[in-house]
What we know:
Layout: E1 2-6, H1 10-21, E2 25-29, E3 46-47, H2 60-67, E4 75-77, H3 83-95, H4 98-126, E5 137-141, H5 144-159, E6 165-168, H6 169-175, E7 188-192, E8 196-197, H7 200-213, E9 217-219, E10 223-230, E11 233-240, E12 246-250, E13 253-256, H8 263-266, E14 276-286, E15 297-300, E16 305-310, E17 313-322, H9 331-344, E18 356-364, E19 371-374, E20 380-384, H10 390-406
Amino acid sequence: MKVVVLGSGIIGTSSAWWLRQDGHEVTVIDRCAGPARETSFANGGQISVSYAEPWANPHAPWRLLQWMMRDDSPLLFRPQADWRQWQWGLSFLRECLPSRLAPNIRAMVAMAEYSRRTLHGMRESLGIQYDQLQRGILTFYRRQSEFETAQRAASLMRDMGVDRRIVSAEEAVAIEPALAPSRHRIVGGDYTADDESGDVHQFTTQLAQRAESAGVDFRFDTRVTRLLAEGGRVWAAEVIEPDGRYTRVLGDAFVVAMGAFSPDVLRPLGVPCPVYPAKGYSATFRILDPARAPEVSLTDSSRKVVVSRLGDRLRLAGTAELSGYSRALNTVRCEALASIAAELFPEGVVDLTTPNYWSGLRPSTPSSVPLVGRSRIGNLFLNTGHGTLGWTMGAGSGRVIADIVAGRRPEPDFPFIGY
Length: 419
Ligand SMILES: Cc1cc2nc3c(=O)[nH]c(=O)nc-3n(C[C@H](O)[C@H](O)[C@H](O)COP(=O)(O)OP(=O)(O)OC[C@H]3O[C@@H](n4cnc5c(N)ncnc54)[C@H](O)[C@@H]3O)c2cc1C
């Protein structure tokens, strides 16, 4: 079968790899010059199965209201004259109902856990190196009230089979000695030894190379304008070629993995796709003193910032801005990341003078559960809406979409579309 994958972020590239393993003729189309150039470029690096929690929870609406007016808040909702944003916001509020929390967590953990196992298998069989570290994730709290709430969340996650160990501030520093200078800021933490970190761009780029060698046709600098459907089937993707010509890429099946832009091609066909961009930022610093830089991936829960060591670089990432599709860098938000780096690590650990700032659009669903499965148009498949956890869920999401295209029941217990 000829399968056309739209998008070559972590999700599209992983989908293409697994579809090719099934023997399909696979074409990947992306508007960028190479794979993983948009949201899968410089994210927080965490493979964080044990923190697979939705943004929507019973406390979220109140917190959002408190944060609304602060330019440096970790989650910022900027109302736009865009009905899609309002529709998304209303659905988000519905997902904040107490009854939605457990099913959403269960779905996210199932996919994330399956994905981590799939990633391990791919790493071993393909020998991909991506500055990966299997040192766990340590989340630390600066306020007692947050630490207490976290203990309740940890117990809920334990009920789902996730091993999140509550630790004291002393234990946190013992787990990651690079935090010793910040000991006075920490009231406690939790640690998940099974979690890990690594560079999503390196992984995706190498996976794309392997896929190309295995016969996948990547067509970069090619923009998808729409999908052409007739008689209940999609028969082509209309694209603008690098030389500006409009052409059509024909296929037997189509997988939409265009991240935050997936609704652009789905809505005209009447296929629901409640995905809205949540802009996030990262700042990457050169490590000057490797012995004093952290190896355990960290989450500064009070600041909603993650810290991952990627070889000789240290990356801080965070903040979420629901403000439309612009990727413009907001200076206040960039500098907030740099000042957290300066606060946590003493002078000389990283080079604070030459940060690489970046922003990306998380493809977010109101429930934080991605949209994976078969749409009501039989040969049109969705693999999108991975929000904060596209790297964590990437390897597994690619594998399950290949199962679904092939008509096999995927392994994880997850609310797939069309089942
Ligand atoms: C600041 C930040 C920190 C994050 N940290 C983490 C983390 O620590 N752990 C984690 O698991 N996740 C993290 N994420 C989330 C993760 O990065 C995303 O969920 C993931 O990258 C989404 O991958 P994707 O393939 O769906 O989208 P993308 O990577 O955006 O890929 C979509 C592709 O579609 C292409 N495309 C779009 N429109 C068109 C078109 N019209 N024609 C052709 N091509 C098109 C784009 O060029 C792009 O390459 C973070 C995100 C951000 C922003």
